[in-house]
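Researcher: Please translate sequence to C-alpha cells.
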Amino acid sequence: MASDSELSDFLKNVEKKAFKRALYHVRDEDAALDILQDSMIKLCSSYGDKPISELPMLFQRILSNTVLDWFRRQKTRKAIFSNLSEFGSDDADGNFDLLEVTSNATEHGLAESAEDWIGRFQTLEHIETAIMSLPARQREAFLLRYWEEMDLAETAAMMGCSEGSVKTHCSRAIHALSKTLATQGIRP
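Model: Translation complete:
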C-alpha cells in the first residue's frame, strides 16, 4: 500500500506530464487542469490503497478515461445547445436575424453545403472507426505520435518500450489505416 507521502510524491512527479498530455488532447488549459484534477481525485479516492508500483499505469488509464469523458460531454453539449451569441449583430439594439446571417454567409461562399458537411462527417466517422479497430499498441503509438504530437522519445517513454518499437507500431498503424480507408474509397 502506498503511504500518503508516497501518493503525494507520485502526484507531484506526474503532474506536469499529465497536464501536458491532457492539454494535447483538449487544447484548452482550463479544461486540461480540470481533467488533471479529476484524474488525481479519482486515483486517490479509488486506488489510494494500491501499491505504489501500480499507480503509474492506473493513473494513465484514469487520465485517458477522464479525457474521453470530457470529449463525450463536449459532444453532447454541442448537440443539445446552440450558441447563438456567435452570430453577431451590427444593430445598436442587439437584434439580429439568423436567416439573414445564414444568407450572407452563403452569398460570400462561407457556408458549407449539406452534402459537403455529410461527406466530411462520414469520412471522419470512417477514420475514427478505422483508428479504433487498430490493435491497442498500434492505436496508442499512432495517437501519441500524430494526435498528441509527441516526439519519438516521449512516445517510447509513455508506452514503456523502445523507440524502434514505437516506429514499428506507427508504421503498421499507418499501413493498416491506409488499407482500411482505401477499401472504403477514402484517399489521402
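Researcher: Any highlights?
Model: Residues 134 and 153 are 22 Å apart (CA to CA).
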